[in-house]
Design a protein that fits this description.
- Two copies of one chain form a homodimer.
- Chain A contains 24 helices and 29 strands.
- The first copy, chain A, has 712 residues and is of the alpha/beta class.
- Chain A folds into four domains: 284 residues, Succinyl-CoA synthetase domains (Rossmann fold); 157 residues, Rossmann fold; 163 residues, 2-Layer Sandwich (D-amino Acid Aminotransferase, Chain A, domain 1), CATH 3.30.470.20; 78 residues, Dna Ligase, domain 1.
- In chain A, the strands form six sheets. Chain A has a seven-stranded mixed beta sheet, sandwiched between helices. In chain A, strands 24, 25, 26, 27, 28 and 29 form a six-stranded antiparallel beta sheet that branches. A five-stranded parallel beta sheet of chain A has the order 2-1-5-6-7, sandwiched between helices.
- The first copy, chain A, is flat, with a radius of gyration of 32 Å.
- At the A-B interface, α5, α8, α11, α15 and α16 of A face α5, α8, α11, α15 and α16 of B.
- Chains A, B: In the N-terminal section; belongs to the acetate CoA ligase alpha subunit family.
């Protein structure tokens, strides 16, 4: 029996908490956590629990949970691993809602059974487990620092979910040093029960959280995670640092968290599908979250660069292209706006070059002009140290203009490059949360992140599209293969599967007589291909059992007779059951459509350039299933070969609708048939518009059976 | 008549200098430069020149050059633009060797004529011009700061050449703030005369220069630059920041320096050819140069990561893959080395995880073990702030280990992540030139740069390969086209050109009778293609003038007769001069080989995947010419489709030698025939090994004629 799950909000706003394993020893985690809870100012009831009793930090220590009265929302468990299960049992029967299991020594070192048993017991009793193997969590909403970190967390608007304990602990000091305010920080550790998706349900709604940073090594809750991320990213920016992106890194990650890191290409594509921003390094992640938590969404894509140096202007222009920031291009508007405030040797082309002679006053006037112009939606302001500009005026100039831009809701980022005074000014401004960077690439990277996030609003959450497929027939085909002890489909089963799914195939018939063969060819239309059908002839071509490109009745008759003659000569004992007459597949664009069950994300679909290029060019992309026709179109645009679908060099545009349809059908199949683990249509040959596309070859692998021996 | 050019060493080590336009006004450039010269401690003779006379900074001011006795190696000119030419004339006739023209107002604002005239005059007199439009130069070898920058340049081992004045000036403060020592810094401005290549000739030999940073917006001296860069990068690391890499950035660069920025793909490929490291941002460039100037080349590729946090270990592993750092993989060796110094919960797999319990002592022992192991060639040491590690011990631990690694010549980089104390420790160590970074990606980036540089030593400078081509015939073909007023070649001229160059074509003959056609077909070998030859029939296929895939004598006879019949019916008045009998081109791998004259780099050659994919996938790469067979092989490996050449999915390996040969022949052609501006063989169809490759289609554009009307 499963109890109802407690509301995740309660984890972040508990009314009463207990620390099991609270310690008198100042060096112990059981003391440190209690100390942080007390110091950070949590106002609910705090109950240290330790059989020894006594008092810690002025709080009476309870010998057991039984001594505590009233409801207990959250318990923090930091007893040795061998006592954890007992403690969990006690909490569960006491009606505790959430149990933070700090203790390590479970699945991360191979002890997965104990972990599973603990979670199973907790779930049954309606208690949820965070961890094990975590450093705890912090919630600004409750002024609750339930971690064994260094303390001193600055409350604010960035939420952090981290799968790495050591990195998370170090983030506490680092965020404080950089004055990045935290709304919540959660260590998820082994993720035995509570997953990122559960925490996001709270963070999406938490009004004090204005941006979310996730450090992920491996995904476990793919389906729910994709669902909540799609919603979350349309409410507030979500940034993911995914480590283990390299093959070797993935192996390192797996060894230290006991979680399987999926392929990085899949992760990358699915984050795009969700509208999540990907950061490569921790620095990038912090920069984005700090900036995005404080910056309103721009009203449009018109960005202007204002600079006192041509060189950094050019660098910023490059950076804008790299990070997807569009520069305003209206020469007339730019001249009208900046002409009056630009010196004669300067430039009103974007970048606006105020020249090396610019002072704070020149910047003020140019930034005024940009602020007043409604077709300018965001600004990159660059400063190179010059003798003409009094560095003492840099800080007020930047701070005042930033404040005005903030008030007006117009995003602005700064970069300042120069000597020690510039560096220290920059450090102070940055600590005051002004987006200012020494390197122009870092500045533009932030603005680029804002625009990537901005795109989420342009694309409303897409509904999921499915296609009708004949599940009864699919079930029959799988059952047939299972009955023969196979975990893959034979060619004719694959063809039948495509029919049941509704993806067109080259036309084909089996003819048992010459007359049937001619009739089949006439019905299919010339040119056709003839192939012998015989389970005794393995190598059809070698036996002379194949004839290609037959263009008329006479050629079919000749070929039919030749095939029988050749095959009887080659394999005298062969039992020939007929000849397969097939449409000769015309040349078209060779694509690949596939689907599989990812260990992290569950059912995913793949699309890309097919044929022999698929392995070499790896020009493919992925989506989590379910997906929509609109999303599949976006997906198509991600492959480098997309122009081939649109038609290049005088070639016709391909029948894109039919390709989208094939992707949706394969996506529907993988989602509705747990019996299938992998399916790959390669090539799917796409023809000109109106002429559809055809699945020329298909490979299907079956999943390991469910315990009850069924496929679903 | 051209005088011999002065030795470039003299520019960096002048015995006597003058400043023309020296000023009494402390706000003027003419004062600032003199002040920097005096302050930095230049020990040669310093002559301020100003008609007003008097004394500046204790130095007697000369009214004119005539008043100065003895040789003058370098003159710094900072008079208004309209007086520059007069000053140049005076210097030239005075025998000045180098003239730094600080003054702006020349080609960068469209005044290119004056600039050209100045340079032409100077060259004739044997004087060289740096600039115009520069902030000057600094040379540590002469303790000479001849810039109008802020002063305070820290002498050291990094040389900087910058095309941007504002950025360069700001670099003076920035390098001082970061304690990056400078051996030389040169502002090249409009590069009217002295180019990067000239300066590199000195910097390659200058022993105090241990790494070279170039900020480039556009290349002008491609040939000499490539030549000297190839030499330089085999002596010391060279890092290039190329701005204007985006299309828009290139436009911005062109507008502000008056130089044409070439395509970024070409620049990128040619820097690879030279062994130059590319940095995207100024930060990356500084990080690399600072690190590379102080780090000896590693003895091998075995890198070990040592960490106290799993998460950053995984991030570093990802970064190693990104930046081409190979992690040591010998589990047994790693266990033997690190087992004794790693806690029981840690890991001796690479990354070596000392766990969150690690202290400075644990690091010392692990770093000792890594230092002692000769199969470990470099180390990435990572630190995440923990409660167990006393931050006060961080600085000495890092500094001492760094010193020991330096002494042993084993490269090491550090990353430390944590709160304010960690940050300030890191800042201090970094100022002491210890390679330590807050972000692991930045640390590994440096090590990756070292390994990229290291590769230069594995590849000795390649000799240039050329192929014999029949230049007389090439000249004839071009002359024929010129005579008809064309700037492109016709199909048959292109075919003849390929023959003269020695690149195989599909076999082909023109037959004037049926007998000739049959004989041609027999000689060429079936299958063949027949095409009508008639200048009156434009659309050969429409007129029934083409027959494909003829497999025997009978089919050739039928087709020949049909072609005559069809064409006479379609175009009764046509003068039919015969039928072209060609080899039917077999399917193979379609490649593209091209060459052109780049405005910056001069003759360059291109190689990549051909056919319709060339435009869509842009899977091509470039090299400056001359190049070598070995370099062309390296070039081939750069394209994504390279595995197709090696044979995938059971396909045969292609005849790579024949493709290399075609590239070398096209490279030789573009180098030896200035009359050709562009040539593109697409497709060059490559067959299995031993079967060569064939130029199926070729397009050739002719260059604008030289003034004397010749092609060379």
């Amino acid at each position: 029996m499963t109890h109802p799950r407690p509301d995740i909000h309660r984890l972040f706003r508990p009314r009463a908490i207990a620390v099991i394993g609270a310690s008198h020893d100042r060096e112990k985690i059981g003391f440190k956590i209690l100390q942080n809870i007390v110091t950070a100012g949590y106002s609910g009831a705090i109950h240290p629990v330790n059989p020894k009793g006594g008092e810690i930090l002025g709080l009476p220590v309870r010998a057991s949970l039984a001594e505590i009265e009233g409801e207990l929302d959250v318990v923090c468990t930091c007893v040795p691993a061998k006592h954890v299960f007992d403690s969990v049992r006690a909490c569960a029967s006491r009606g505790v809602k959430f149990n933070l299991v700090i203790t390590s020594g479970f699945s991360e070192i191979g002890n997965a059974e104990e972990e599973k048993a603990i979670v199973a017991h907790a779930r049954e009793q309606g208690m949820r487990i965070l961890g094990p193997n975590i450093f705890g969590m912090y919630s600004a909403a409750a002024a609750l620092d339930m971690t064994f970190g260094p303390g001193g967390i600055v409350p604010g608007n960035v939420a952090i979910i981290t799968q790495s304990g050591a990195l998370g602990l170090a983030m506490i000091g680092k965020t404080a040093a950089e004055n990045i305010g935290i709304s919540a920080m959660v260590s998820v550790g082994n993720k035995a029960d509570i997953q990122e998706s559960d925490l996001l349900e709270y963070l999406v709604e938490d009004e004090s959280t204005l941006s979310i940073l996730m450090y992920i090594e491996g995904v476990r809750d793919g389906g729910p995670l994709v669902e909540v991320l799609q919603r979350a990213a349309r409410v507030k920016p979500v940034v993911a640092i995914k480590s283990g992106r390299s093959k070797r890194g993935a192996a390192a990650a797996a060894s230290h968290t006991g979680s399987l890191a999926g392929s990085d290409e899949i992760f990358e594509a699915i984050m795009r599908q969700c509208g999540v921003l990907r950061a490569e390094s921790v620095r990038e992640g912090f920069d984005l979250c700090k900036f995005l938590a404080r910056t309103r969404t721009p009203r449009g894509r018109g960005t202007v660069i204002i600079t006192n140096g041509g060189g950094i202007g050019v660098l910023a222009t490059d950076a804008c292209e790299k990070y997807g920031v569009s520069l305003l291009d209206d020469a007339q508007d730019l001249r009208a706006t900046f002409g009056p405030v630009t010196p004669s040797f300067g430039s009103t082309r974007n970048p606006i070059d105020l020249t090396g002679g610019a002072t704070a006053d020149h910047y003020d006037r140019a930034l005024d002009a940009a602020l007043a112009n409604d077709s300018i939606h965001s600004v990159v302001a660059l400063y190179c140290e010059t003798a003409m500009f009094d560095v003492a005026t840099l800080a007020p100039m930047v701070a005042q203009n930033y404040a005005r831009y903030q008030d007006a809701g117009k995003p602005i980022v700064f970069s300042a490059f120069g000597g020690g005074d510039v560096e220290s000014t920059l450090g102070r401004l940055s600590r005051d949360r002004v987006p200012i960077f020494s390197d122009v690439y870092d500045a533009v990277h932030c603005l680029g992140g804002l625009y990537r996030h901005f795109e989420n609003f342009a694309h409303p959450l897409r509904r999921s599209d499915e296609a009708p497929i004949d599940l009864a027939v699919v079930g029959e085909i799988l059952a047939g293969a299972r009955a023969e002890g196979r975990t893959f489909l034979l060619a004719h089963e694959g063809r039948r599967l495509m029919e049941a799914v509704g993806i067109p195939l080259p036309r084909s018939r089996v003819a048992r007589t010459l007359e049937e063969a001619v009739r089949a060819a006439e019905e299919i239309g010339y040119p056709v291909v003839l192939k012998v059908v015989s389970r005794d002839i393995l190598h059809k071509s070698d036996a002379g059992g194949v004839a290609l490109d037959l263009e008329n009745r006479d050629e079919v008759i000749d070929a039919y007779q030749a095939i029988y003659r050749n095959c009887r000569a080659a394999v005298p004992a062969a039992n020939i059951s007929g000849v397969e007459v097939s449409e000769m597949v015309r040349k078209g664009l060779e694509l690949i459509v596939g689907a599989r069950r990812d260990p992290g994300f569950g059912p995913i679909v793949m699309f890309g350039l097919g044929g022999i290029y698929v392995e070499v060019l790896k020009d493919v992309t992925f989506r989590a299933v379910p997906t929509s026709r609109a999303e599949v179109l976006t997906m198509m645009k991600e492959i480098r070969a997309f122009p081939l679908l649109m038609g290049v060099r005088g070639e016709e545009r391909k029948d894109i609708d039919s390709v989208v349809d094939a992707v949706i059908r394969i996506a529907t199949l993988i989602r509705s048939c747990p019996g299938i683990s992998d399916i790959e249509v390669n090539p799917l040959v796409a023809y000109e518009e109106g002429e559809g596309s055809k699945a020329v070859d298909v490979r299907v692998l079956l999943a390991a059976l469910e315990e009850d021996g069924t496929d679903a």
